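S.,

Sequence below, as promised.
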Amino acid sequence: MIKTARLLSVLTLAALFLAGMASAQTDPGVQSGRNVGGTIIDPNNDPNGFTAFFTDGQKRFNDVESVSNSPTNNNGLGPRFNSVSCVSCHAQPTEGGTGAAVNPQFLFAGSSVAPKDSTPYFITANGPTREARFPFFFNANGTVNYNNPNGGVEDLFTVSGRTDAGSCILQQPSFNAAGQANDIIFRIPTPVFGAGLIENLDDSTLQKNRANNLSNNFGIAGDFNHNGNDGTITRFGWKAQNKSLHIFAGEAYNVEMGVSNELFPQDRPLPGEDGNGGSGLTGLPTTCLGLSGGYPEDTSNPTQTSNAAVLDDVSAFANFMRFLAPPPTGPVVLNGNTVPASSIANGFAQFKAVGCATCHNPTPGMTQPSNFVPALSKAPVNAFSDIEIHHMGTTLADNVSQGGAGGDQFRTAPLWGLGQRIFLLHDGRTLDLNAVIQAHESNGSEATNVEENFDNLSPGNKQDLLNFLRSL
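The prediction came back faster than expected:
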């Protein structure tokens, strides 16, 4: 009798455990079959002829850069870089997206791309495409100086040893030492679908939307990052640190690929090499300057015959991003079965009820009139973002400040296109939406109450919310 009771007890516990596993919510994962990557421009309603500028920018977005002597005039890579083309970082699910399942950075070291370099420990074949930053400078003895903030990008690779790089020899940053000292953070590429709509939101619309968002019972505040020159709202990048797509493209060309341009006209040394951080160093060595002949390396092309070709690469990149259509929503497949529309509808209702929509606004408003194309005028911006920066607490804090955004503040990541993203959060630390949601709860996070509301949902409602997110 006792043995039988014990056996029944064990079987009952096992059944409850398995039932709990069966009812646990599952991220449906990356979805496919959505028509992404086209242009917002209606070719039949393009009075200014910008379709050709989108196509030209798309081609240049795919170009592979070299240091010098390129037959295609794509000169200027390096002296330091994270990758060799825009599309190598913005490839998932197509050009303009975020990092792909296969990381191109993993193949650079020891190849003709970066022959003298080693692959950093955090770059893997099937991991996220990343850039690295050291939040703080190091003391001369190798310890971290927490009173001396850094936060600049530490480019992963150098042109040392390349056949087109002359005698330039540079060392890679001390990634292993930074990792051992816990003084390293990562960022993954942000997708730029629909970016022209976000760019064309006027500040007054965003401010009115913020005033509405402040009326909440979740402890959410939020603010905007601002341009240091004219004080207007900035909106691109993980901390909304860039004002426009033009600046976003120019900075990326200079920082991620080392190509000087009309917005950033000099080669960029690493933090510390520029004399900051108390290093006493005085910039890049002369053997690594002027490798392509002169500055800036990316300029306008006045001898070209087509209007689009006259532009510099940075302007072309900006046009490509500006005219990329927003990503469409779509059906969701979970465990081989199509999720019912009723599940997605209920997931959206739960998304709003628990408070997610307080920051991830379905739309922050309508765009202002556009002098580019009619498709950008008076259009809804269904980005699921308020474009504000929020305190996200200790779990997500990276101790890097950009503009007015502090070490634990991030822009509300637009969720449109989420259904086709592989690597999630600002550093790509997870592939699972459950982990993303859990990371929103921590000391100092404005989203803690919202995350706890999610925890209190029934398993079915949680699953519906995840299904909804992957429908975006």
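The CA atoms of residues 133 and 152 lie 6 Å apart.

Coffee later?
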